[in-house]
Structures are given as structure tokens and as C-alpha cells.
Design goal:
By secondary structure, this protein is of the alpha/beta class. It has a single domain (3-239), classed as Alpha-Beta Barrel (TIM Barrel), CATH 3.20.20. It is built from 11 helices and 8 strands. It has an 8-stranded parallel beta barrel, surrounded by 8 helices. The radius of gyration is 19 Å and the shape is globular.
């Protein structure tokens, strides 16, 4: 089954489909042991590839190249890619979508922010006029073949959230995402507003949204959940601790134990990516 249709079918199941944020090939190799779906988070990619915050620095050729490497190593995984605002005007957005579909992406998320853009869970977001975003979205939808397209709004005012969610649901987008939802009641209101259109929920540590289990999300009518940064933040914490410990022992590596990761474990993990 083509990748876009496979993701669309997974989203249509009664359960909430989880997609795990990966930021490089190593994190994807570990995530693949546990989940069958990836999310290429703009937050994680900006941090890992550029060492910069998620405020619009990503260049589309870098995202396409990363997607190609992921698809080559993980041919059967769902692969949803955050493309921010499409990296420019509608022509650029359509070119990026075509390239990502050729690279093997399962789907993309297109947001309604204008530049300078921000992570969906921080202050200072500015929105494109709704008709301008809808024009870009419709052109992206027209240029895809079978790619799953998620229409995202970053509205924060309650009335504006529902207005935009309803407008997005009326398009041919496959899924609607309202980023930075602050509480469960807001999720319920959005669910009611968009009717039968599939709903995506974004969970990120330290973000605005509540921490909910997949079971709780399914009860709320959420069809797919993206976990933007569990790998990135876990690596941050683990690396900081490892180097703090190394400094405390005057540079002596720890003895390690039965479950410690070393050369054999790392080589075994990465050998699975050889095709």
C-alpha cells in the first residue's frame, strides 16, 4: 500500500495512532524498536541539525534529504513530516510536498502561521489571514498524489480556534490539528466542531497541552497523536548526566553493567539499517 494511504488507514482505526518524534537516524533506529510510526518534528530537527530553536531556520532540502534517509532505512514505518508553513509561498510549498512524496513521506503537516514563525507551544505566534492559508492549503492538496495532509492552525483565541478548525475541516485535508490545546474541554469543543474529520493531538514535554494517555485520547475522539520530542529530551537528559558523571570521575568511563550500551549494542542496532 502506498505510504500515504497506509497512514490514512491507520488513522481510520478506532484506536489513537501514535507517531513518535525522531530527530536523527540514531533516534529513529531506537524508536523503531517500539513504534511503527515516526514524526519528523520541526522542533527536534531544528535543534539537532542546526542547533537552533524552532523559529523558521529549517531549509526544505534538508528535510527532504532526512526523509529520504529515513524511508530507505525504515520502508514500512509511517512517516509524518512537519513542513511548518511550507517554507515560503504556495509554489514553494507545493514543490516541497511533491519532493517529500517522492522521497517516501507518508504525510505532511502544513500550519497557518506567518513568519517569523514559532513553536506551537510558545508565545508570539502570528497567523496568516484565513483565506490566504486556505489558498495555500488547497494548492498543496491539489498537487499531492496520495500523501496524507494535516491542516494545522496555531490560533490561541477560543473563538478563532473554532472558526479556523471548522474551515480546515471543510477542506479536503485528511486531518485537522489545533496546536497548543490547553485543556480537555477544548479538545471536546474542537472534536464537536470538525465533525467526522480526523483529529490530531500534539504532546510535547513542557508544552501547553495536558498529558494524556492513548486510551484517554481515544475516548476524546482523537485519531492520531504526535509525540514531538521524547527522544530529543531523553537524549538531552542522558547526555548531560553521562558527561557530568565523566567529569566527576576525572574522565574514567563507567564500568557498565549487563544492560549498559557499548560498541556491541550500538553496532547491533545500526546493522539492522543496512539494506
Amino acid at each position: 500500500m502506498p505510504h500515504g494511504n497506509a497512514l490514512r488507514s491507520a488513522i481510520a482505526t478506532p484506536r489513537t495512532t501514535p507517531l513518535i518524534g525522531v530527530y536523527d537516524m540514531y533516534s529513529a533506529s531506537i524508536a523503531a524498536r517500539h513504534y511503527d510510526g515516526f514524526f519528523v518534528s520541526g522542533f527536534g530537527f531544528a535543534a539537532s541539525y542546526y542547533g537552533l530553536p524552532d523559529i523558521g531556520f529549517i531549509a526544505w532540502p534538508d528535510i527532504v534529504a532526512f526523509t529520504e534517509r529515513l524511508r530507505w532505512a525504515f520502508p514500512d514505518h509511517h512517516l509524518l513530516v512537519d513542513i511548518d508553513d511550507g517554507y515560503g509561498d504556495p509554489e514553494v510549498a507545493c514543490h516541497v510536498v511533491r519532493r517529500l512524496e517522492q522521497a517516501g513521506a507518508s504525510g505532511v503537516i502544513l500550519e497557518d502561521q506567518k513568519r517569523p514563525r514559532r513553536c506551537g507551544h510558545v508565545e508570539g505566534k502570528q497567523l496568516l489571514p484565513l483565506d490566504e492559508y486556505l489558498d495555500k492549503l488547497e494548492r498543496v492538496l491539489a498537487c499531492r498524489t496520495e500523501l496524507t495532509v494535516v491542516a494545522r492552525t496555531d490560533a490561541t483565541d477560543d473563538a478563532e480556534i473554532l472558526t479556523r478548525a471548522k474551515a480546515l475541516a471543510a477542506t479536503d485535508a485528511d486531518v485537522v490539528l489545533v496546536d497548543g490545546v490547553r485543556d480537555i474541554e477544548a479538545i471536546r469543543r474542537i472534536r464537536d466542531t470538525i465533525g467526522d474529520k480526523p483529529l490530531l493531538f500534539n504532546q510535547i514535554a513542557g508544552g501547553r497541552s495536558p498529558r494524556l494517555s492513548l486510551g484517554e485520547l481515544a475516548e476524546l475522539g482523537v485519531d492520531v497523536a504526535i509525540y514531538s520530542t521524547p527522544c530529543l529530551f531523553a537524549a538531552h537528559e542522558a547526555m548531560d548526566k553521562a558527561l557530568t558523571d565523566l567529569k566527576a570521575t576525572d574522565g574514567r568511563l563507567p564500568a557498565g553493567g549487563e544492560d549498559a550500551v557499548g560498541v556491541p549494542q550500538s553496532v547491533e542496532l545500526l546493522t539492522r539499517n543496512l539494506r
